[in-house]
Automatic annotation (TrEMBL):
It comes from the Bacteria. Keywords: ATP-binding, Cell shape, Cell wall biogenesis/degradation, Cytoplasm, Ligase, Nucleotide-binding, Peptidoglycan synthesis. It comes from Uliginosibacterium flavum. PANTHER family: D-ALANINE--D-ALANINE LIGASE, D-ALANINE--D-ALANINE LIGASE B. This is D-alanine--D-alanine ligase. Pathway: Cell wall biogenesis; peptidoglycan biosynthesis. Cell wall formation. Its main location: cytoplasm. It is an enzyme of class 6 (ligase). InterPro entries: ATP-grasp, ATP_grasp_subdomain_1, D-Ala_lig_Van_CS, D_ala_D_ala, Dala_Dala_lig_C, Dala_Dala_lig_N, PreATP-grasp_dom_sf. Belongs to the D-alanine--D-alanine ligase family. It holds the Pfam family Dala_Dala_lig_C. Its cofactor is Mg(2+); Mn(2+).
Amino acid sequence: MTIAAKNFGKIAVLMGGPSAERDISLLSGNAVLTALLGAGLQAHAFDPAERSVWELKEAGFTHAFIALHGRFGEDGTVQGALQTLGIPYTGSGVMASAIGMDKWRTKLVWLAAGVPTPKFRMLAPGVDFSGVMDELGLPLIIKPAREGSSIGVSKVSSAAEFGPAFDAAYKLDPLVIAEEFVSGQEMTAAVFGDVALPLVRIEPLQGDYDYQNKYFTDNVRYHCPAGIAPEIEEAVQQDALRAFQVLGCRGWARADVILRADGSYSFLEMNTCPGMTGHSLVPMAARAAGISFEQLCLNILEQAKLD
């Protein structure tokens, strides 16, 4: 047994879970599990959709690596359970996880802190679509406030598309956001500890950077280094750190950013438990910074703690 294995004890890699992002979580969790086992650690898969989290204490787990995405895993719920059990866990704590999962409240915090984010309106049944379109313009984006991986997100280009897009988002979450569409280059800004990693620029070869293209096709090119002006990259990285810190995040996270042609940019959301799949962007940014996937997983685990 290695020194690292002795220090960490028995590790639960939480994966799967009950959210709409279950399939992606299983991919992330298995990648993390393989890396931890390869490093000689005593790691085990643990699916909260199949076993109660309260079994973690009974089974003698001493640490939890959270590879859950979406509700239950990324919204403060499982963090609160682990906090109650006294089991140190990776990533952000209860409050930051809950706020980060909620795109509306994230925007409120960012606006108060001066982090640039697109204009938006909260929507409710019976909303005056025409008023929202007059305010935000077309096209615009409609999305559920508390889902990830582009689930339930629609781009609305005409008045006829507004109602169906709202209904699709509302089925997933009663909190629905209409957001100004920002045209530009899609990027992600990962934060690891107190360091902003190199930016990743995303170039869909066809269609949008949606759920299917994110995880299940090779129709996307990723550029890291991002190939943008150094002064713009540094500015985005510094704002990513600020966006991370004002939400109270810790450990690691990934912000989604749009860079406009004039060099300005807007932050869309913060992912407090980013993907760790073969298409995932934090491992890609880490590699560009000279950090292997196995080392990334170990370093994330080293930062595991209670709130």
